[in-house]
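User: Structure with flavin-adenine dinucleotide, tokens only please.
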Amino acid sequence: MIREDDTLDPLLAMLERFVKERLIPNEHRVADEDAIPPDIIMEMRGLGLFGLSTPVEYGGIGLNMSQEVQVAFVLGQTSPAFRSLIGTNNGIGSQGIILDGTEEQKSKYLPRLASGEIVGAFALTEPNAGSDASSLRTTARRDGDVYVLNGTKRFITNAPEAGLFTVMARTNPDEKGAGGISAFLVEAGTPGLHIGPADRKMGQKGTHTADVLFEDCRVPATQLLGGVEGQGFKTAMKVLDRGRLHIAAVCVGVSERLIRESLRYAMEREQFGKPIAEFQLIQAMLADSRMEAYAARCMVLDAALRRDQGQNISTEASCCKLFASEMVGRVADRAVQIFGGAGYIADYGIERFYRDVRLFRLYEGTSQIQQLVIARNMMREAS
Ligand SMILES: Cc1cc2nc3c(=O)[nH]c(=O)nc-3n(C[C@H](O)[C@H](O)[C@H](O)COP(=O)(O)OP(=O)(O)OC[C@H]3O[C@@H](n4cnc5c(N)ncnc54)[C@H](O)[C@@H]3O)c2cc1C
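Assistant:
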């Protein structure tokens, strides 16, 4: 594992250069074409970005959480679509295997996910099971050496590109809650697995979500994650704890980019004979954004360190996701305000970020669900 700063620092410096020289100049193109150019995807593969958190023995870079969030701070400095492309392989699309997979499942899939040869997707949400994910209805019925999957998954990130899906399905129809749910590794191309048309989204153009449908999809029993039934929901929640911290770190990165752009614009743009940055009402917006981004950065680093020390960070991860995703929404709103009319015009790119960051308050648990997790944990600790 990379532990020393003298190993992480060159990685961060290289990423900062890549973001500045390759990703930021392509932001408009990705938004206009709703696709990440293939040459950039290949460069991202070459840099090892698909395997940041995958253990070294399975072909990844093996970052711990403290290191991963620092990488996310850097990747957050550009359009979230770039981060989203590698996000599932580093997070929800691989962590289930890393945390709970059998040795055979790890060696079969992790090297291919880490190299970016295949894209991973995580299929939990359904048309009637969003925040209440444990009420999911997709079924997996055992039939000899296979499980037969039936159901529909909704809004699945990277589904159109994915080569492997971690799918949560109910193996025990008598158990209506979380205990009846198991996780399966389903390869793209398995007969009975269909991908719907890509959803038309508010933002984050260049990254795609779609429905994933299972119609008598026969999956070998060896694809049951960890080889144990009834553990799928627990696995999903562990994966999301980690994912929430990563998302919070991305929010910090985006807010820092927006603050930099806002400051630069405020110091250049003149009204009433002086730069608008001289006006205290503009200064208040800049200062509030800086303060909030700094608070979020500290929270994320603290929670990541606690996780690396082996602590249960369910509460802290939700605190980080809740605060950072709401914070970046306020920062993006102030950025539009500081840019004035230009903030509303596509050429300046600020309105694009304003739309892009809205998603952070919704997926991997809405803000309301983070509040519920925090409060429930507080009550559990108190009793
Ligand atoms: C672009 C995008 C990508 C996504 N990627 C994935 C993915 O890769 N994999 C995946 O499985 N899912 C994915 N999702 C789904 C996402 O996680 C869900 O949309 C999210 O969890 C909310 O579920 P829902 O949309 O059904 O909203 P609902 O659960 O219907 O919630 C609607 C509103 O009610 C509130 N609410 C619900 N329950 C409560 C409660 N108990 N108390 C108070 N308020 C409540 C919510 O906070 C929200 O404001 C993605 C979604 C989007 C939009």
